[in-house]
Amino acid sequence: MRVLVGDPYYSLEEVAAIIGDLAEVEEAAAPWEGDDVVGLLVSPDQPVGAAELDRLPALRIVATCSVGYDNVDTAAAADRDIWVCNVPDYCVEEMADSSLALLLALMRGVVALDRSVREGKWDHAVAGPLRVNRGTRLGVIGFGRIGHALATRALALGFEVCAVDPHLPDDAIAGYGVHPLSLDEALAGCEVFSLHSLLTDETRGMIGVAEIAKMPRGALLVDTARAALVDFDAVLEALDSGQLGGAAFDVLPVEPPSAEAPAPERPTLIVNPHSAWYSPATEHEAYRRPAVSVREALEGRRPTDALVP
After folding, report:
1. Measured between alpha carbons, how far is 32 from 162 in angstroms, rounded to an integer?
2. Domain check: are 119 and 264 in the same one?
3. Can you tell me the mean pLDDT for 118-127?
4. Per-residue pLDDT tens over the stretch 235-273
5. 41 and 111 inside one domain
6. How many whole angstroms separate alpha carbon 304 and alpha carbon 295?
């Protein structure tokens, strides 16, 4: 039996030590195939759909080293009794810290002011009106672990926090001192926004032209979750028109950027290289736990981090 490692950032030695004598471990690039492949370790940018699963008839488990799992066709996996595992809670603190840092950088013009100084200017107003935390209404879109952690930080800093999450009852959100709102209510009533929703068919493109138009003029937008939650062209147009006063993204439609798909540039836009999740401790955890899930599945147990079936 073999376990294939599709992401070169996994340590083959550590994966092999975790799997032990249950299977042979080898690095392999897609397309994956083999009648003896029982486990597959992938990264969030490696798609695993029905076609990939059909080439691996003995597969028991697919594990991805990320919170998100939209790269895996979970329905196709469930139909074939294949476990799908992610690492649902490994970078909550890092993601919340990074989201808050990007939000504060936009509100206080930190990046724009730095750029202006390096261009030879010395003007405290070059980034436009700077905002204060206290009393600012923050809309947290998606109130899972990361959204909740961000809300806790923002409340401590004086923000008025609202949350949008159709999967949670209003009283569960309100119990954290946060105002539960519908998406339309949040768009109309909040001044700054941070996206933390899972990427699904329902949330893909959830922030587009119509949604941005409902925001107050000069609103700020942070996305550390998934690029496909937003219409990037709409965001850039809104930055140009001033409908959005600024935006910060840790995720892009094409990663890494290329000559054909360069990183977008605007004076009021901050782009980070998908780094919000990172710390040395979480990097290790992200690649260790999928291997543990594979071992649990090969031992005939339900993996601790199983999503489906």
Report:
1. 44
2. yes
3. 95
4. 999 999 999 999 999 999 999 999 999 999 999 999 999
5. no
6. 11
Give the domain range for residue 110. 92-271
Same domain, 154 and 255: yes
What is the reported pTM?
0.88
CA distance 98 to 87: 19
- Report the C-alpha gap between 267 and 134 in whole angstroms: 25
Residue-level pLDDT at 308: 85
Q: What percent of the chain has pLDDT over 90?
A: 96
CATH number at residue 84: 3.40.50.720
In angstroms, rounded to a whole number, what is the distance separating the alpha carbons of residues 163 and 153? 14
Residue 215 has pLDDT above 90, yes or no: yes
Residues 253, 289, single domain; the answer is no
Mean per-residue pLDDT for 277-283? 94
CB-based contact 105:248 (threshold 8 Å): yes
| 221-237 per-position pLDDT tens digit | 999 999 999 999 999 99
Q: What residues are labeled active site?
A: 226, 255, 274
What average pLDDT does range 90-110 have in this prediction? 97
Please tell me whether residues 137 and 258 are part of one structural domain.
yes
The verdict on 171 and 184 lying in the same domain is yes
Residues 237 and 164 placed together within one structural domain of the fold:
yes
Whole-number Å distance between alpha carbons of 263 and 249: 10
Q: Specify the residue for token string 């009393």.
A: 135
Contact between 305 and 80 (Cβ < 8 Å): no
* Same domain, residue pair 60 and 201: no
